[in-house]
Specification:
Helix 4 runs antiparallel to helix 5, helix 8 runs antiparallel to helix 9 and helix 11 packs antiparallel against helix 12. This protein has a domain of about 60 residues. It is globular and about 75 Å long. By secondary structure, the chain is mainly alpha-helical. It has a three-stranded antiparallel beta sheet. The protein is built from twelve helices and five strands.
């Protein structure tokens, strides 16, 4: 028994020494190579993460990798039949099959999640948000994960994004992104990308959150035409109200006469108007 214990201690010591032989950058490089070969939750990834964390407990790349491990392990993709539905989450069907009556049935790729593993992924992010409240990466990862988890009803994702906007409005934190100072322009770009994701969901809830968040950002940054364009797109696409949409696009063009989105959407509305007149 004594010999067995000594052997175990020896192996543990060797593993620790092995870990210390690598720099944090070398651990990251090894992780990235491993992930390319086996995926975020493949064989050997968790072992490498444990050694990496033991050697460099303050390396913020480790919790990001740990989150990816749990999130990937939780996720599975299935083909789901959605009769009569042309799009799902903004995407066309992955394939179409015939039912027994000969009718076309569209099938969509849909992600599902194991709740326990998804909870582990969220726990990793919540710990890091508590420890690094001004780091945007962990907050962005949480919003993205919730968007994927909630699909057509992104209530929790929208809530997290609204909290972020409220923090910016009330206390103007010294945000960082991947450890580097993030100015207000970077913050606006990040929220703008999430607005686009809500729009792409193309569900009633997705559209309403797209409008709500865009209006909040327009109030906070009234000189940014992106969020004004967004409100115009809400009226144009979600509500089918071109007249109301035109008001916002023209407002955006007053701020930026070269605003491509506003100009392009006004052209689409004008062509639609001309086409209806011909009929």
């Amino acid at each position: 028994m004594k010999r067995l214990i000594l052997l175990t201690v020896s192996v543990l010591f060797s593993a620790a020494a092995f870990a210390q032989d690598f720099t944090a950058e070398e651990f990251l490089a090894r992780y990235e190579r491993l992930v390319r070969n086996v995926g975020y939750a493949g064989v050997g990834v968790e072992t490498l993460l444990d050694r990496w964390e033991e050697a460099y407990p303050d390396d913020m790349n480790v919790p990001v990798a740990r989150f990816n491990y749990y999130f990937s392990k939780a996720e599975k993709t299935e083909m789901v039949a959605r009769p009569g539905q042309k799009r799902f989450m903004g995407n066309p069907p992955a394939m179409t099959l015939k039912d027994p009556e000969g009718q076309d049935v569209p099938y969509f790729e849909e992600n599902f999640y194991d709740d326990e593993l998804f909870g582990e992924a969220m726990h990793v992010l919540d710990q890091q948000i508590a420890a690094h409240p001004d780091e945007l990466r962990f907050r962005y990862l949480k919003i993205s994960a919730l968007l994927s988890y909630e699909k057509e009803h992104p209530d929790m994702a929208a809530s997290e994004l609204k909290k972020l906007i409220q923090l910016q409005s009330s206390s103007h934190p010294a945000w960082t992104l991947d450890g580097t100072a993030a100015d207000e322009e970077i913050f606006q770009q990040g929220v703008g990308e999430y607005c686009y994701m809500f729009f792409q969901i193309a569900s009633p809830d997705g559209y309403e959150y797209f409008r709500d968040i865009s209006e909040r950002m327009n109030k906070l940054y009234p000189k940014n035409p992106v969020f004004i364009d967004n409100i115009g797109s809400y009226w144009q696409v979600a509500m089918g109200n071109d007249k109301q949409a035109v008001k916002y696009y023209k407002k955006a063009l007053k701020l930026d006469p070269d605003d491509y989105a506003a100009k392009r959407n006004l052209q689409i509305i004008e062509k639609k108007k001309q086409s209806s007149k011909k009929k």
